[in-house]
Amino acid sequence: MNSLHLVQHEVPLTWYLLLSAVLFCLGVVGFLIKRNLITMFMSIELMLNAVNLSFVTFAHQWHQVRGQIFVFFVMMVAAAEAAVGLAIIIAVFRTRATLAVDRIDLMKL
């Protein structure tokens, strides 16, 4: 217990925020560069997790629970997004036999 308490104080707040920013930027780059639906979907999840890390960091810094409550809300939205998004991806793959965004830009079958 005591060693865990020491580890928490050794890592400064800025490192958590820097990690969050790096993860968010990787998500943005992955979303903009990759042309595969699954990769774009995972990039969105990476961006949501980066935001969650910032919420938890600030909640810990200010000793409030609001940030952790927002994290649970974001996780619920991400779970709903994953369920609906994966269903759409499976439906697109069944009809088009590809997940390349450039080839599925029309809504018409």
UniProtKB/TrEMBL annotation:
Query: EC number(s) in its UniProt entry?
Result: 7.1.1.-
* Record Pfam families: Oxidored_q2
Q: Which GO cellular component does the record give, naming just one?
A: plasma membrane
Membrane is among the record's keywords: yes
Q: Which GO terms describe its molecular function?
A: NADH dehydrogenase (quinone) (non-electrogenic) activity; quinone binding
Q: Which domain of life is it from?
A: Bacteria
Q: Does the keyword Translocase apply?
A: yes
The UniProt keyword set, sorted, is:
Cell membrane, Membrane, NAD, Oxidoreductase, Quinone, Translocase, Transmembrane, Transmembrane helix, Transport, Ubiquinone
Protein's cellular compartments: Cell membrane; Membrane
Tell me the Gene Ontology biological-process terms attached to this UniProt entry: ATP synthesis coupled electron transport
Q: Which reactions is this enzyme annotated as catalysing?
A: a quinone + NADH + 5 H(+)(in) = a quinol + NAD(+) + 4 H(+)(out)
Which coarse location class describes where this protein primarily resides? Answer: membrane
Family of this protein: Belongs to the complex I subunit 4L family.
Annotated function: NDH-1 shuttles electrons from NADH, via FMN and iron-sulfur (Fe-S) centers, to quinones in the respiratory chain. The immediate electron acceptor for the enzyme in this species is believed to be ubiquinone. Couples the redox reaction to proton translocation (for every two electrons transferred, four hydrogen ions are translocated across the cytoplasmic membrane), and thus conserves the redox energy in a proton gradient.
What is the protein's name according to its record?
NADH-quinone oxidoreductase subunit K
| Source organism of this protein record | Telmatobacter sp. DSM 110680
